[in-house]
Amino acid sequence: MSGASQIYHYDRTQRGFHWLMAALILVALGIGIYAAWQAPGTSPRRELLDIHKSVGLTVLLLLPLRLVYRLIAGEPAYRAPPSRSAHLAAKVAHWSLYVLMLLLPVSGYVYSAAGGYGLPLFGLFSFPRLVPVDKALSQAGYGAHYWIAWAVGIVLALHVLAVAWHAWIRRDEVMGRMWPRRVAGG
After folding, report:
1. Distance between CA atoms of 122 and 142, rounded to whole angstroms?
2. Residue 183 above 60 pLDDT?
3. How many Cβ atoms sit within 10 Å of the Cβ of residue 148?
4. Which residues lie closer than 8 Å to 119 by C-beta, 6 or more apart?
5. 12-176 has which CATH code?
6. Do 105 and 29 form a contact (C-beta atoms < 8 A)?
7. Lower Cβ count inside 10 Å, N or C end of the chain?
């Protein structure tokens, strides 16, 4: 491709997946943390957890679509490619986020399904229970969900710090690759 027709940013669909899933994950984390402070079995905890599960299961449903589209569309070029180590670190961080986006809702599903709790999707329908009701399995799912949520929080914080570093310290194009375009041809 010639420089004039080279694309240096993610397309609208990839940006849409990125920002939608970022918002859903932040909402799910926030609701999950708030609900954890509420007394078990009470209102609003039950309702909050139903929303939390719905948002988490939505992330789980969107993830394969996002990954397939990412594999088809690929990654845009850089005007000034990062060092090999920086590019490798970014790849590891992004694929770690994808793995965590899978493991977090799956562990939540196991916790809820094995615990005999409902698996609603915004009141539209309930997901089928694919695991037996089993207290030990539910507790394992809870433990995994708890620690994976911490891992997601840490990796997201590092992601945001890396973006800030690129935007404000390095002043390179990394942030603009995922940000909505403001300049034609950029």
Report:
1. 21
2. no
3. 20
4. 53, 57, 109, 112, 113, 126, 127, 128, 129
5. 1.20.950.20
6. no
7. N
| H-assigned helices in 38-167 | 45-73, 84-114, 135-164
User: How far apart are the C-alpha atoms of 86 and 92, rounded to whole Å?
Assistant: 10
Q: What percent of the chain has pLDDT over 90?
A: 72
Q: What single-letter DSSP state applies at residue 6?
A: -
> pLDDT digits over 43-90, tens only?
999 999 999 999 999 999 999 999 999 999 998 888 888 889 988 988
Q: Which two tokens stand for residue 62?
A: 């969107």
Query: pTM higher than 0.70 for the full model?
Result: yes
Look at residue 81 and give its three-state secondary structure: coil
Instruction: Yes or no: say if 28 and 100 are a contact pair by the CB < 8 Å rule.
Output: no
Q: Do residues 144 and 151 touch, judged by C-beta distance below 8 A?
A: no
pLDDT band at 116 (very low <50, low <70, confident <90, very high): very high
**Residue 141, helix vs strand vs coil:** helix
Helix and strand numbers (H, E) in the chain are: 5, 2
Q: Are 153 and 29 in contact (CB under 8 A)?
A: yes
Q: Find out whether 71 and 50 touch, Cβ atoms under 8 Å.
A: no
pLDDT score of 5:
64
CA distances from 117 to 7, 8, 105, 186 (A): 47, 46, 15, 49
